[in-house]
Amino acid sequence: MAFLKVVSLEKALEAINSFPLEPKIETVPLSEALGRVLAENVTSPINVPPFDRATVDGYAVRAEDTFMASESEPVKLKVVGEINAGDTPAVELKPGESVYISTGAPLPKNADAVIQFEDVEGEGEEVIIYKPAYPGLGVMKAGTDIPKGKILLKRGTRLTFKDTALLSAVGFSEVKVFGKPRVAVISTGNEVVLPGEELKPGQIYDINGRAIADAVRELGGEALFLGIARDDRESLKALIEKGIECCDMVILSGGASGGIRDLTSSIVEELGEVRIHGIAIQPGKPTIIGLINGKPVFGLPGYPTSCLTNFTLLVAPLLRKLLGRESEVGKVRKRLAHKVFSVKGRRQFLPVRIEGEKAIPILKGSGAVTSFIEADGFIEVPENVEILEAGEEVEVTFFG
Questions:
Q1: Among its keywords, does the record have ATP-binding (predicted)?
Q2: I need a labelling partner for 21 at 20 to 30 A (CA). Which of 107, 145, 286, 353 fits?
Q3: What is the rounded average pLDDT of the residues 44-61?
């Protein structure tokens, strides 16, 4: 497919959605589940608490034995034992009996109330009760907190520390989660060098490799940065083949336009199939979408803002699908800070910075590093719109 045979953004997304990819499901220990996305609904296998338990330190009683108690005519009950948290009660209360019990301990058979220490007096092997207790006083019944069979967490939940604590409370030691897509990241260009290396005349430090890899990780995937491919066929082909071999997806930045050194499209065509080469958007027109051995290959533009805008538009939705997070798209509505001019007939995605209720356009161009760094996200200017007025409401799509 030749470059400049451009398609709409919708056609590009259609091509991506047609890829034969489904989320993978794996079982992981609960200790490794933080931040992962549940692949199934989780129901409680037990009651919490699993038994009727005392919520205060005091005496477990049969409430009916205390109904006649008053300040003038207290009731005396025989103390026949002691139960502490973690004990298995062996005693069974008979009429006129009580048991010393500590907070969290299971109630003995026939007991239905616990009177706290402050409301009674001890006298030898008896306890003196001055006011009646009612069934349930000082008691948490089994399943009151969490009943057995209750849905605790739904499929698609990204697990927080509160969620893992809840799963631990009902006895889960492992959970089923969506697998992490493994993504190979490749930067391209003779002019690009890694941070830490000497910067010679005509060279720039790589930003896209770091940005794409960490954007993948931020979404929940695994990113493997394979390095920088030089502008020669052997170097680029070797890294693409390595990415296809070790990962589920390959993302390249740079090398997608029609220049003599831009080889990505021909290599993808040689190894597999180019589905899209050119999208009718600005910035980001020179974008490649292909398939090699059933694995997606994205050739994103080299300019940072173009690269990360197209990552957000094209790659992020696919990653969210594979991670079970399709509904998580960060958007907000704001008022445009000042007038924006666009070219009619060209669909534009303009980076903006959010300040309060305003979206402030960043007009430095997609080649400026700070266009992306200063931006919180971008707005869409439709192809039939030439001017967006100051104060007009716009929808901001967040990067990441």
A1: no
A2: 286
A3: 96
The pLDDT, as a whole number, for residue 33 is 96
The answer to whether domain 53-140 has CATH 1.10.540.10 is no
CA angle 241, 245, 249 (to 5 degrees): 85
| Locus of tokens 């409401």 | 393
**pLDDT tens digit sequence for 299-328:** 998 888 889 889 999 999 999 999 988 766
The yes-or-no verdict on residue 381 having pLDDT over 60 is yes
Q: Name, in order, each residue with C-beta under 8 angstroms of 126's C-beta and a sequence gap of 6 or more.
A: 76, 77, 78, 79
Q: What is the amino acid identity at position 256? A: A
- For the domain spanning 331-398, the CATH number is 2.40.340.10
DSSP 243-310: HHHH-SEEEEES--SSSTT--HHHHHHHHSEEEEE-BSEES--S-EEEEETTEEEEEE-SSHHHHHHH
Domain coordinates of the chain in residue numbers?
9-24+181-323, 27-48+147-178, 53-140, 331-398
Whole-model pTM: value is: 0.77
Work out the mean pLDDT of the chain and round it to a whole number.
Answer: 89
Distance between CA atoms of 265 and 303, rounded to whole angstroms? 18
The pLDDT tens digits of the residues spanning 248-260 come to: 999 999 865 555 4
User: So what's the pLDDT on residue 189?
Assistant: 87
Question: What's the CA dihedral at 13, 295, 223, 318 to 10 degrees?
Answer: 20
